[in-house]
């Protein structure tokens, strides 16, 4: 029997390699594991010419052992004024609550 999260860890390793291959100096999004492959920290830099220009936002990404069949929990650590982000950094979009139906 595979260890819990083994398949998700393999998938995340593959996702990380793909992301590293496609990074450019102009990339406005980055992410990497912190203490293990299921806990990541991400960074989003505000787009040029937007109200977020010059700002940098840190996020946490917690991947469940059932990833990619269940989505990660993503939360802003840096305060962000946006209609889809609550005062605790939670992203409020129904698409992030997607679950597969049989």
From TrEMBL:
GO terms for molecular function: ATP binding; transferase activity. Keywords: ATP-binding, Nucleotide-binding, Transferase, Ubl conjugation pathway. Residues 7-102 form the UBC core domain. The active site is at 92 (glycyl thioester intermediate). SMART domains: UBCc (SM00212). PROSITE patterns: UBC_1, UBC_2. It holds the Pfam family UQ_con. InterPro entries: Ub_conjugating_enzyme, UBC, UBQ-conjugating_AS, UBQ-conjugating_enzyme/RWD. The keyword S-adenosyl-L-methionine does not apply. The keyword Metal-binding does not apply. SUPFAM superfamilies: UBC-like. Belongs to the ubiquitin-conjugating enzyme family. This is Ubiquitin-conjugating enzyme E2 C. It comes from Acropora cervicornis.
């Amino acid at each position: 029997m595979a260890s819990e999260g083994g398949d998700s860890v393999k998938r995340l390793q593959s996702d990380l390699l793909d992301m590293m291959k496609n990074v450019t100096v102009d990339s406005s999004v980055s992410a990497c594991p912190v203490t293990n492959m299921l806990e990541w920290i991400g960074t989003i830099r505000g787009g040029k010419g937007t109200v977020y220009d010059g700002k940098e936002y840190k996020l946490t990404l917690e991947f469940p052992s059932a990833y990619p069949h269940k989505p990660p929990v993503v939360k802003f650590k840096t305060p962000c004024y946006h209609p889809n982000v609550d005062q605790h950094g939670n992203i409020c979009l129904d698409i992030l609550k997607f679950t597969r139906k049989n």
